[in-house]
Write a structure and sequence with these properties.
Layout: H1 3-6, E1 13-17, H2 30-35, H3 40-51, H4 57-65, H5 74-84, H6 91-100, E2 103-112, H7 113-121, E3 130-134, E4 150-151, H8 157-168, E5 176-180, H9 186-195, E6 198-204, H10 206-214, E7 221-226, H11 235-238, H12 247-254
Parallel strand pairs: 1-2, 1-5, 2-3, 3-4, 5-6, 6-7
Length: 256
Amino acid sequence: MALAEKTEKIWRGIVSSDWNECLCQSTPFDPITFIYPELSPRLDVIFKRYTGNLITLGQAAKDALEMLPAPLSKEQMDAYLDVSFRPYRGVLELIRWCLKNDILFVINTTAFQGYFQRASAKGLIPPGTVIAANPSVNYGSEGKSPFPVYSIDEIEDKAKVSATIMQSLKIGPSQVVVMGDSGGDGPHFAWGASVGAYLIGSMTKPSLERFCRERGIKMDLHFGLTYEEGNPRDPAAETQVDFMDLTPVIAAVLGT
């Protein structure tokens, strides 16, 4: 069933954003390294390879999960979330602000669906947020939502999800904001540029800058830190960025 058929609400616009290292400090594989810290070096290599567009997301998820002695359980995911759910400052407030102002917020990410299923069950994700995530770790839905959960099997699916939601809600591309941080968001940005969406680089990595530069894609805004080639991340500085500072930008773009 189409999104518009499942909710009668009239939405003014859409923010479709990556999650890991864009809205929060974690990577998609952090729940695994929390339980199996000895796997961290190998998983870090896999993460950098697919965010740098060197391997597919499907291959990355397969390689990561094949390292595990057993599937990641609900209890293990809960243990991780209890100590490591770390959105950047103002992110949850920004999502609530968007929803309050009739802007649909879509977390459009390569992170595992199971992460968001358990985070939602714990009340960590604002109700009404749409989730598009990788189904490789999935615990099944709990409770009812007017919104479907979308699957991101490859990074190209992010753009497909945004296009599907935009068309379902009959929202024009000028009412869409796309946000990402790395080359893994490149195809999403390419789609956004092709239709005229507003593009925000958040904690922008060189891989996204390179993807956009090579294809003549111009970001409309760099928000938070922008990293140069070879420079390490600065997690302490990232925590000083307040995502509520995006509200006047989004309001101006979407006319709220």
